[in-house]
Design a protein that fits this description.
With 268 residues, the protein is α/β, with parallel strands linked by helices. 34% of the residues lie in helices and 26% in strands. It folds into two domains: 224 residues, 3-Layer(aba) Sandwich (Rossmann fold), CATH 3.40.50.300; 39 residues, no CATH class. One of its GO terms (cellular component) is plasma membrane.
């Protein structure tokens, strides 16, 4: 299939009377690892929620493989798109295994009950996120980092070609952050299209194939990390004086903040 798997056309996004974005349009390239970056409150997570159909736009539309996502049945969307929100809440007294198994719900129906394929999908998701040893534990007993990996496992168990992740490294220590990002990179290499919201510019530049930079509800730049992560853009979007140098491990852009006195001098 040609064309973007997911796109937004002329969106107005709002919470009650607070308008977050107007006339917002973006296309997610097929088979890309797209990362949305920008300062707090710029609309990153709001855009992701609209793309994942958990926030209804005031105006405009979201297209999933060229079809208006609002017109599709929920199960049809869930077979094609998995969304990991920023702060998911698990039901009380649910085990890790049971929570991850809920990722198979879109594949169930009157004529299709739990199968060996479902069991394999859950086992593979638990292994991929390294939480198989927690399978019988209650989710409420886990640390924040463990819970985040369990939620990611549930999203992986859906086995969708399109995966949306809102701050997937939240609560994780630095080693587990890179483990999760490496896992996302492997999923992308296997052919999935990923869209993630990240705060860490250097992680975004290292892992993304396509960056979308936002400020105040507007897309100010998009493209390969080498084109987007520049000193002028970091200063414009984040108000940070910096140098952008090649990452010594990957050659991707790496943001090095200026000394505090230089940062103060160059703030807009």
């Amino acid at each position: 299939m040609n064309g973007p798997p997911l796109e937004a056309e002329g969106l107005t996004l709002a919470y009650d009377q607070l308008v977050v974005a107007q006339d917002l349009s973006v296309q997610i390239p097929r088979a890309s690892f797209t990362v949305i970056i920008g300062p707090n409150g710029c609309g990153k997570s709001t855009l992701l929620r609209a793309l994942g159909r958990t926030l209804k736009p005031r105006a405009g539309r979201v297209l999933l493989d060229g079809e208006p996502i609002a017109a599709l049945r929920s199960k049809d969307v869930a077979r094609r798109l998995a969304l990991l929100p920023q702060s998911p809440v698990a039901p009380e007294s649910i085990t890790v295994g049971d929570l991850v198994a809920r990722g198979r719900y879109p594949h169930q129906g009157i004529l299709r009950q739990w199968s060996a394929a479902d069991a394999r999908a859950v086992a593979d998701a638990l292994d991929a996120t390294e939480v198989a040893d927690l399978r019988d534990r209650y989710v409420a007993e886990l640390s924040g980092g463990q819970r985040q990996r369990v939620w990611l496992a549930m999203a992986l168990a859906q086995q969708t070609d399109l995966l949306l992740l809102d701050e997937p490294t939240t609560f994780l220590d630095i080693a587990h952050q890179f483990e999760v990002m490496d896992l996302c990179a492997r999923l992308h290499e296997e052919g999935r299209t990923l869209v993630a919201v990240l705060h860490d510019l250097n992680q975004a530049a290292r892992y993304a194939t396509h960056l979308v930079a936002m400020k105040a509800g507007v897309v100010v730049a998009e493209g390969p990390p080498s084109d987007v992560v520049t000193e002028p853009l970091v200063r414009e979007v984040f108000g940070l004086a910096c140098r952008v140098v090649p990452d010594p491990e990957t050659g991707t852009p790496m943001v090095v903040p200026a000394r505090r006195d230089a940062h103060v001098r160059h703030l807009p």
